[in-house]
């Protein structure tokens, strides 16, 4: 059994592929009040896709079914996944997510990825701590 055979399955504490993971936030941030921000993660074929919204996102079953369709998720940002010692890291060009997989949710710190010219290195700045991405399945 390969690495991704254990990582992607519908059993508990595995990344599920039969739905989406959604996180919603509204509240105070270091830069002021945020009325709504959402993140969506979709896992398919050993890859992860992401979409962000500048509003709260509460998808219906029809929305989830559309997101699961190939035409939709191929337009999302594609990221890389790594997993070590019970922790998961997901990296996109501008964001990184680091945390743990639980039954029907991911608890992740969200980072803004930048470049430090002085040290010539990539720097992750935490922007949200312990964001809970709840799993929403496509079944009616």
Can you summarize this structure?
By secondary structure, the chain is mainly beta.
Describe the structure.
With 140 residues, the protein is mostly beta strands. The chain has three helices and eight strands. The chain has an eight-stranded antiparallel β-barrel with strand order 1-2-3-4-5-6-7-8. The N terminus is likely disordered.
Strand-helix topology:
Layout: H1 3-7, E1 19-29, E2 32-44, E3 47-53, H2 61-68, H3 70-73, E4 77-84, E5 87-91, E6 95-102, E7 105-116, E8 121-137
Antiparallel strand pairs: 1-2, 1-8, 2-3, 3-4, 4-5, 5-6, 6-7, 7-8
Give the strand line-up of the largest sheet.
1-2-3-4-5-6-7-8
Question: Uncertain segments of ≥5 residues (pLDDT<50)?
Answer: 1-12
State the total count of DSSP E strands: 8
Broad structural category: mainly beta
- Gross geometry: globular
Strand content: over 45%
Biggest sheet character: 8 strands, antiparallel, barrel
Radius of gyration: 15 Å
Q: What are the key terms here?
A:
single chain; 140 residues; mainly beta; 8-stranded antiparallel beta barrel; 3 helices; globular
């Amino acid at each position: 059994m390969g690495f991704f055979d254990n990582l992607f399955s519908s059993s508990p504490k595995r990344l599920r592929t039969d739905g989406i993971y959604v996180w919603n936030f509204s509240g105070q941030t270091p830069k002021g009040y945020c009325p709504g921000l959402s993140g969506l993660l979709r896992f398919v074929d050993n890859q992860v896709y992401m979409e962000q919204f500048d509003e709260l996102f509460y998808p219906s079953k029809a929305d989830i079914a559309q997101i699961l369709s190939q035409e939709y998720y191929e337009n999302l940002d594609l990221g890389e996944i790594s997993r070590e010692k019970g922790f998961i890291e997901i990296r996109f060009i501008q964001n990184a997510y680091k945390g743990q997989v639980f039954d029907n949710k991911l608890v992740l710190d969200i980072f803004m990825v930048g470049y430090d010219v002085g040290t010539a290195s990539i720097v992750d700045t935490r922007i949200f701590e312990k964001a809970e991405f709840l799993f929403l399945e496509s079944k009616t």
